[in-house]
Give the backbone structure.
Amino acid sequence: MQFPLTLTHFLSRARDFFGTTEVVSRRPDKSLHRHTWRDVVDRTARLANALTKLGVRPGARVATLCWNHTAHLEAWLAAPCMGAVVHTLNLRLHPNELAYIARHAEDDVIIVDRSLLPLFHKFKDQVPSLRHVLVVPDDGEVDPVNGLDYEKTIAAASAEFAWPELPENQAAMICYTSGTTGNPKGVLYSHRSIVLHTLVSCMRDTLGVGEADTVLPVVPMFHAAAWGLPFDAIATGAKLVFPGPHLDPGSLLELMAKERVTVAGGVPTIWLGILAMLDADPKKFDLSAIRAMVIGGSAAPASLIDGFKKRHDLSVQHAWGMTETSPLGTVSRTKRAQADASPEVKLAALASQGYACAFVEQRHVGENGQRLPWDGETMGELEVRGPWVAQSYLGGEGVDRFTADGWFKTGDVATIDREGFVRITDRSKDVIKSGGEWISSVALENALMSHPAVLEAAVFAGRHPKWDERPLAAIVLKPNQQATAEQLRAHLEGQFAKFWLPDDFLFVTAIPRTSTGKFLKSKLRADYGDHLMK
Ligand code: ADP
């Protein structure tokens, strides 16, 4: 049959089959608010009626400036299913960047948390297209001068909405790259691309989300659609738990234990903090329900994966992706071929970025675009293609990222081994080129973070009079732990060729981060790049 792959299908399915399953949200005051899938679907219809009344037309952009919570999810569902487009704004960006993005996307209406109004007020006047503001009363009553109260507005609207029959290629969501390597660029997801991404994400060998799961998206809903986890939950009828603004290790651990979370997803920096807290007090939280902790966004160090497994019997699921890939690209799990391999080989496979999930194709190419061998050694730029990989950016920017034969150039440098396992060695902008040879900062960081005294390590290029660039390491030590540069160098010796070893180790209190929690190496280069020239 010709049956359109649209998100609308998920709405009736969640209401009819999983109507009593909970969707839980944590508010700024830490209270937990409970809805069911039936409530969420009703509230989504009410929101669609309210937006229609506000004049939101097909194709119009409904922006969100929200933490992860139920109302945010309702916007994710109502706007696309009524034929409009939801646009998630990253609340960690500078107001000027937010203004640029909201103007670029021509946002029509915005849904904003009351707790985020101070940020919104810093840029709202720079977005002339905005006609209406709906304020989610997450931390108190909404003053009408700030906009319409989200709860009162949807309560006044009907819970019946005649969802239109949409073509599957209709735009559903816009997400901007976080601009780690340049101006943020808009990526459009269609109903079809999200539905296919969801189906493959829920395959057992991908993330394997099912009805019995309780899913906690720690990754923000503005960061590559929270990796699709909320869509996985509604599609399968899983229980969903939103952390709101409380993303510190203690709050997350408490929530995971209380709600019996089975699958949680977040960037490595979140999990590094969680592992340190568990190590300090292994018995405090009951995490026996957890079956997978999904880690992506930056490389998950092998020591992190190993530490969770060995010391706490918790399994990490390492995945690679990008805003441009919706985001799932590759997922790491050992294969039949490694069943009898040593623990070291298995850990190395789990710590790699894995191989492409179904319907994503991968290759890596050299400087002239030639395909490189899958020998586990040759480094080249990773390229991917597939039904949820972008074929252009909004407004036609960045055309050089798309090849003539339909592949997306990721900007990541990787090796691929015979079994297809991808190992990201760097982002091309972060590559360290010493005397013409490439040094993988990611490999050095992983090794440094396996040192017992090291909490975080970021390796970056320092300018060098003779070698052009040499690696430098910024190190954050664990509280009450000591390590000297000599000890860290000794820890790396034997694991790497001599010319890979960092020329210096800079002990810092914190490593600067991007808006999505990754190490901000451009700032490290700006601050310390001339360290070796002095
Ligand atoms: P931004 O491009 O603004 O950082 P994205 O979240 O889209 O925002 O980042 C995608 C990039 O993150 C990838 O190109 C890659 O460099 C990095 N990345 C994502 N997942 C992993 C991973 N598992 N291992 C290493 N790098 C990763």
Observations:
- The domain at 8-20+32-190 is CATH 3.40.50.12780 (Rossmann fold).
- The longest strand covers residues 454-464.
- The pocket of adenosine-5'-diphosphate is lined by residues 177-180, 224, 296-299, 318-323, 353, 410-412, 424, 427, 516, 518 (CB under 6 Å).
- The two ends are 69 Å apart (CA to CA).
